[in-house]
Every structure is written in C-alpha cells, then in structure tokens.
Write a structure and sequence with these properties.
flat
Length: 128
Amino acid sequence: ESIKTVLTSPENRILIKRMLIKCADISNPCRPIEQCIEWAGRISEEYFAQTDEEKRQGLPVVMPVFDRNTCSIPKSQISFIDYFITDMFDAWDAFADLPNLMLHLDNNFKYWKGLDERKLRSLRPPPE
C-alpha cells in the first residue's frame, strides 16, 4: 500500500526511475560472484589503461590508485562498496525488497575482504 502511495506522484516515479538507473549502472557488487569478479577485472583494466595513458602523455593522473603496479583490486572494491553501494542498495532494498541482490553484495564484500586480509592485490587467490 505504501508503494502505491509513493507511485501516485509523478515526481516520485521520476525519482524512483532515476534511482533504478543509477543502481543498475553501479550494480556489479550485487551480481553473482563470478560475474562480479569478471566485471571488476574489466573495469580495473579500463582504469589501468587510462592511468597508463595519462602517464604516457605526461598528464595529471586522475585516479592514482589505479596504477597497475601498485593497485589492490580487493581494496578498490571494498572502498567502492563501502562508499557508494551499501547505503544505496540498503535504501533500494527497503523500498523493493531485494534479498538476492543483498546476499550477493554481502558475499562479494566478504570475498574482497578475504583477499585483502591475505594481502592479495589480484582478482583471485593464487591456485592451491
């Protein structure tokens, strides 16, 4: 009933659509772990390439944390989840009840934390 009330206002519908688009745009930490790892790698590589190119051209480095020689992908994912994802998806979950997404988010956060606690900087632990 409260959702129906919220949806009666055109302004609220626009806000909800904007929120949905933003959540979809940054939702990688809410995907199943294998997809999350794959896309974290792709995004990191994109940022590494940007940093490499900025250095090559002698430009200011916009994201110095994405130096491929020093970056910790687990730390970058943990920070991204802490600063952008958790609060946004907690709010979205309160509105739309998204237990699967929240479970993936929790599992992925634990995965990245586990790598970081082992002082690993890569997408995956080394083979056993």
